Amino acid sequence: GQADAVVGIGAGRLIDTAKVAAETLGAELVSIPTLASNCAPFTPLAAIYHAQGHTFSYVEYFKKSAYITLVDYNLLLSTPHDFFVAGIGDTLAKWYEMDGITRHKVDQLNAYGQLSRASAKTIQAILFKNAEQALADLDAGRDTPAFEAVADTIIGLAGEVGGFGGIDGRAAGAHATHNGLSYLPETHAVLHGSKVAYGILVQLAETGDDDEIRSLLPFYEKIGLPTNLEDLHVTENVAEKILQVAEFAAKPEETFILVDKSLTPQKVAASMEKVEAVTSEAAA
């Protein structure tokens, strides 16, 4: 039969599944997020995983966005603390990935590219200003301006970066690192956005922004984002695991190459090792 619409009520993977169903049926999508943990309810793409549900496969792009995304802040207050933290980490990557892709051609961006970059910078500013208070409000069950600002940023503003910027506003090194990490069984219990947040540090190490890593660490520690491999439960055969992640993240079809055309697995591995050194030094 023919459906007029597919309604997805839930979190990221459920809504991504609803997107696939709507696209297959040629139906409209109505998305109703129950968690503020990613931009899935608003964006016309889906992260597709292999059948067992842990390892990343590819990104699917759809012809249309949701017909309507219905956000109820009182419903989003049921978001588990760790999922909200992961949503902040995933969304923070919008600035760092956009900057990594476009920093060498800012003057060449068209009007929409400039708007995309400005949106990404605004996302960073909103999260830095409101994340800590928003988490406290979530834990207390309070619908406040800080909570709404962060929830809107995670669900809505995050999609504007790629929406306006196209290829210049897409995922880059942080998400490629996540994709590689998804193949390590010990990271399966770590949420998507938290692995992406670690990937931000790896991308910054690759682009030589060690001082930016150091400036981010207090924010990460304050809200509970991972800063090293131990935080991702990777504690055994670390050198081997680093190379495994690096080999995946450096694949030509992955997105890390958007920030470094001469990327190699050895470069990514060295960047992961640098993150370990910088975070260890900061903790000393």
The termini sit apart by 63 Å
Stretches with pLDDT under 50, minimum 5 residues: none
- The largest beta-sheet arranges its strands as 1-2-5
The percent of residues in helical segments reads 55-70%
Categorize the overall geometry.
globular
Radius of gyration: 18 Å
Spell out the helices and strands N to C: EHEEEEHHHHHHHHH
Count of DSSP H/I helices: 10
Structural class: mainly alpha
Biggest sheet layout = 3 strands, parallel
Notes on the protein architecture:
The chain has 284 residues and is mainly alpha-helical. It has ten helices and five strands; from the N terminus they run βαββββααααααααα. It has a three-stranded parallel beta sheet, with helices on one face. It has a two-stranded antiparallel ribbon with strand order 3-4. The chain is globular. The model has no long low-confidence stretch (mean pLDDT 95).
